[in-house]
Each structure stands twice: as C-alpha cells, then as structure tokens.
Amino acid sequence: MAEKGKLIKIQETNVSSATAVVSLTGIDTTYSVYVCRVSEVAPDATDKNLYMRVTKSGSPDSTSNYDSSIYALRSDTTFSTAQFTNGQHWKTSNYASSTGTGQTMQGLFYLFNFPLADYSYITNETTSVTGGNLLIGGQGGGVHTVQSASDGISFHFSSDNIASGNFVLYGLKRD
Fold first, then answer.
1. Cα separations (Å) of 94 from 27, 69, 139?
2. Are 153 and 109 in contact (CB under 8 A)?
3. Residue 95: what pLDDT?
C-alpha cells in the first residue's frame, strides 16, 4: 500500500542518443494528479525550445488546442512573460535549451484532470542554462482545450532531436 503524499513511478525514459519524441503514458484514474520530472534535457544540434503535448491512446495530440502562459525569471535582466493560445503544443519555457556543456533544462510538471473527460491542465516549474550561460527559471501553466481523457504526455524540440535527458512520470498518492 502506498503512503499518502508519495510519488509512485509509472514510467521512466532515459535518452542517450537522438530521438525525435519522448512519450510517457500510463495515466489512468488510479491517481487524480500526476507529476512529470525532466532533467538534463538537451537538443542535439542547436538551441531549441522544448514542447509538450498530451497523448490520446498513446499518440501525441498535435491539434491546435493548447493555451499557456509562462513567467520567466532571468539572471541577466528583469522577468518577462509570454502567452500562447491555440497552439499545437505547450512551451515548457520561454527560452531555448542549448547544446553546450552543462546547458540543459530541468523541470517539474503537475498534470491535472488527465484521465477525465474534461480539460487537461498543467502547471510547470523549469530552469534552463542557455547559450552564453544565461540562467532562466520559469513558472507557468496551460490547458488542453478539449474535453476528453488524456493517457500521457510527450516532449519534442521545436526542431532537431532530443539528444539527452531523463523523463519520469509519477502518480501522486494523495489518500
């Protein structure tokens, strides 16, 4: 029996060679909240943005039904904000991940309502070291504006492949 407040690992994927998409599935009605942790994520060629999509029957949904907002905390200047509506994915950060040594992205994503026939919501907290060793922290949220169950989450870069990273999906045991 799982303890209250405990994260229960559902699926983990380690990327060590170029791959276009990482999908984590296994979301069902067992838990009402799921958590996805990403670490050491980097693109394979140039500085790119990491994007997320819900999965339906294990496949990423690329329809134009993603709305989100991001608050970026920067080490070189004041904060910035960005809003996106009717996109084909959620942006995980307002700035690109980089390919230099130690220039990776880390993040936590909380997934709400995914197994329900309702809107799927996310909140996110990320940190990235970009080209020029600029540190960017981000907080935000998003909604998939389709009332249908989602069974997972997928990640891809705006172009190029995912060169490295660790992706873990957990169920949050709350009762």
1. 27, 9, 10
2. yes
3. 58
**Cβ atoms of 67 and 122 closer than 8 Å:** no
Of the candidates 124, 159, 167, 165, the residue with the CA atom closest to the CA atom of residue 48:
159
Q: Is the pLDDT of residue 170 over 90?
A: yes
Contact 121, 154 (CB under 8 A): no
Query: What is the pTM for the complete model shown?
Result: 0.91
Angle at alpha carbon of residue 133, lines to 128 and 139, rounded to 5°:
25
Assign a CATH topology to domain 6-173: Jelly Rolls (2.60.120)
Q: How many CA atoms lie within 13 A of 137 on its CB side?
A: 6
Q: What is the pLDDT of residues 121-143, one digit of tens each?
A: 999 999 988 777 778 888 999 99
